[in-house]
Specification:
It is a single chain. By secondary structure, the protein is an alpha+beta fold. Helix 18 crosses helix 23. The protein is built from 24 helices and 17 strands. It has a 4-stranded antiparallel β-sheet. Among the domains are: about 120 residues, Alpha Horseshoe (Serine Threonine Protein Phosphatase 5, Tetratricopeptide repeat), CATH 1.25.40; about 90 residues, Roll (Chitinase A, domain 3), CATH 3.10.50.40; about 90 residues, Chitinase A, domain 3, CATH 3.10.50.
Length: about 650
């Protein structure tokens, strides 16, 4: 359930700008300053807890703050308990998290809070379930979690539950290692986390403010149906078969044959019909009224089912027909088109809601665009401000970076004022949407929570790989040069020749051709095209590039020793043909230069070293971890039956 949450208080713009700019330490100090002033103390304490929960990721600190507020605040508030439950869950204290969710679900039964809490109870139940399939350093993976992941895969995933469990174990090892290696503190993780959170918040806004409100009511759908009844009318149609010929006598003969044996229609259509439908045994598919010649159309739509019609003449052709299905004109009922109407109205509503939502955001916002800063004439080394949104500056470098991050087809020409204006407008709209989501505490929404837990694991694993592997592994130029020298054979360009050949089936004729070519070598092309029986003759005898081992040995022995431009003696590579060749080109063995292959070598060595480091790291982590697996061996049906038969045989012998 994704629903917007009510604000606890209107947050000042200068504070919101700290949040939007990722200045979380300054934001915490801001909260402390407000608490010291003694105004809205508990609400600013909650705001401070939210920073630790959602921004900094210090779930222990967030738990401490929320617990303190709940203990000291006289007024009971379900959202405080819900926040505490989230902080405990994110801190992997699933037992106490479940208890806090239960408090919310039982004592604060107000929509959507109770729904969010019940989903939290379900998540924690899966973690608190006592049927474990594995433990990693005291962290449990339950049977419910494994079964849930298997269900998301394929119907065959059950057979590979060991492999899937191993993936879950690896992900847990990586997550724990990421925490141990302070991945959360790296710039790579922080940037990736901010980008992903913005993406999820935009998705949540769309789900809550747009898609969640776009579903049309039954009343509006029925009204749309009544107003657009003509759009739901189905034309009169028939289905059947046809045989069309260009002879009246043949048509009459075929009709006579069909009247004796109507089952032969398919065969006769394939044999005699001149229409395109003969390929499908005369099957016409769906035919609508007025889509056939007038005489044919009139007969088809008056015909009785499964009775022969013909012979009908039209356009110097003669047709025989058989109608197998006839559907009259009708209007589809509301229930038939309900889903179609719902989709149409929803799409219209989405567009309208998007426009209205953005109009309201922009109406309340303060923003300004300086698009001339992006033009070529104004381009300077200084990173100038191109827009201001609610007091926050958007720099030219951010716009350029945003544009470069898009796929090629989505990038815009920043020197084109119209394209630039659209991009700046998109950036501003996203800024306003994200600020809206931050103010409305969308990170507490159940839809966001479910996605964020999954995304966090992936981001932590990527951040760990970046820190342990990418940032730690490098290749120096000497390693690349050494590899090139030690593996030079990998870069060998094999010896090749290019020839022209004339192949004939007479020795004497081959000798005559050679004799003529020795005096007129420029005639090789024309002679090859005129006399050669080889496939190369059509292109003047040209063989293309030849490597050793691709032609008969005798051919290669001559070709690779022949001087360029020379005509060979007549030779035979089989018992029936005779060949004369002219060497056009000879390329000796060479090696690709270091400059040509150096970059590829460096990339290959880097990837290899990264794989080795990653594999060694994972092996070390596995070795150091205490891993227990409790999966039982699956029973094999064949073996079970054999065991039963053996037991029955033993019992019979005993009796």
């Amino acid at each position: 359930m994704n629903l917007i949450l009510l604000l606890f208080m209107a947050l000042p713009q200068d504070y919101m700008n700290l949040i939007m700019q990722g200045k979380y330490v300054d934001a915490v100090n801001y909260c402390d300053a407000m608490i010291d002033k003694g105004k809205d103390v508990f609400k600013w304490q909650i705001e401070k807890g939210d920073i630790y929960l959602d921004k900094i990721g210090d779930f222990g600190k967030a738990t401490e703050i929320y617990s303190n507020v709940i203990e000291k605040h006289k007024k009971k508030d379900g959202w405080y308990h819900y926040r505490l439950a989230l902080a405990l869950e994110m801190n992997e204290d699933y037992l106490n998290a479940a208890k806090s969710y239960e408090v919310v679900a039982t004592q604060f039964r107000k929509f959507p809070l109770d729904s969010f809490a019940l989903n939290g109870v379900e998540r924690c139940f899966k973690k608190n379930y006592q049927d474990f399939v594995a433990t990693i350093d005291g962290y449990n993976i339950t049977r419910l979690e494994l079964d849930e992941l298997i269900a998301k895969r394929s119907t065959f995933a059950k057979r590979d539950e060991k492999a899937i469990l191993d993936q879950m174990i690896v992900m847990r090892l990586l997550f724990a290692s990421a925490i141990k290696n302070s991945v959360r503190e790296t710039d790579f993780f922080k940037d990736a986390m901010e980008d992903k959170k913005k993406s999820l918040l935009l998705e949540e806004i769309n789900a809550v403010e747009i898609a969640g409100k776009a579903l049309p009511t039954e009343k509006k759908m029925k009204k749309y149906y009544r107003k657009n009844k003509k759009n739901f009318e189905l034309r009169e149609e028939i289905k059947g078969k046809e045989i069309i010929v260009e002879s009246d006598s043949l048509a009459k003969f075929l009709l006579d044959s069909l009247e004796k044996d109507i089952e032969s229609f398919n065969t006769l259509a394939k044999l005699h019909s001149t229409a395109a439908t003969k390929r499908s045994s005369g099957n016409m598919g769906v035919v609508y009224r007025d889509s056939k010649p007038k005489s044919v159309d009139k007969a088809l739509f008056k015909a009785k089912l499964n009775e022969l019609i013909g012979v009908i003449q039209f356009d110097d052709k003669f047709g025989i027909y058989l109608v197998t299905e006839h559907k009259p004109k009708r209007r589809r009922e509301f229930d038939e088109v309900r889903n179609q109407i719902e989709a149409t109205l929803k799409a219209e509503n989405i567009k309208s809601l998007e426009e209205k939502f953005m109009k309201n955001l922009k109406k309340k916002a303060k923003f300004e665009i300086y698009e001339d800063i992006m033009s070529d004439s104004a381009r300077v080394t200084e990173d100038k401000v191109v827009a201001i949104v609610n007091g926050r500056e958007i720099l030219r470098s951010f716009v350029e970076k945003r544009n470069e991050s898009q796929p090629n087809f989505a990038r815009v020409n920043l020197t084109d004022s119209e394209e630039l204006k659209k991009l700046l407008n998109t950036i501003i709209e996203e800024e306003l949407k994200i600020e809206w989501a931050e103010r409305k505490k969308y990170f507490l929404n159940d839809g966001f929570v479910a996605k964020w837990k999954v995304e966090t694991e992936g981001l932590m694993a990527n951040g760990l790989y970046r820190k342990i592997v990418v940032d730690a592994v490098s290749i120096d130029s000497q390693e690349v040069k050494d590899y090139y020298e030690e593996h030079k054979e990998e870069f060998k360009i094999l010896e090749t020749v290019k020839c022209q050949e004339i192949v004939v089936d007479s020795l004497n004729f081959a000798k005559e051709i050679r004799k003529f070519l020795l005096e007129n070598p420029e005639k090789f092309d024309s002679l090859a095209k005129e006399h050669s029986i080889a496939p190369t003759g059509k292109r003047g005898g040209t063989t293309g590039s030849i490597r050793k081992g691709t032609k008969p040995k005798k051919f290669e022995d001559i070709a690779f020793k022949l001087p360029v431009g020379s005509i060979s003696k007549v030779f035979s590579v089989d018992d029936s043909t005779y060949t004369v060749i002219k060497l056009v080109e000879h390329n000796p063995v060479t090696y690709r230069t270091f400059n040509e292959v150096g970059k590829n070598i460096e990339t290959g060595l880097l990837r290899q070293k990264q794989r080795e480091v990653a594999d060694a790291f994972l092996a070390k982590v596995r070795e150091e971890a205490e891993i227990e697996i409790f999966l039982s061996e699956p029973e094999k049906e064949g073996e079970t039956k054999e065991e039963e038969i053996k037991k029955e045989d033993l019992n019979e012998k005993k009796e």
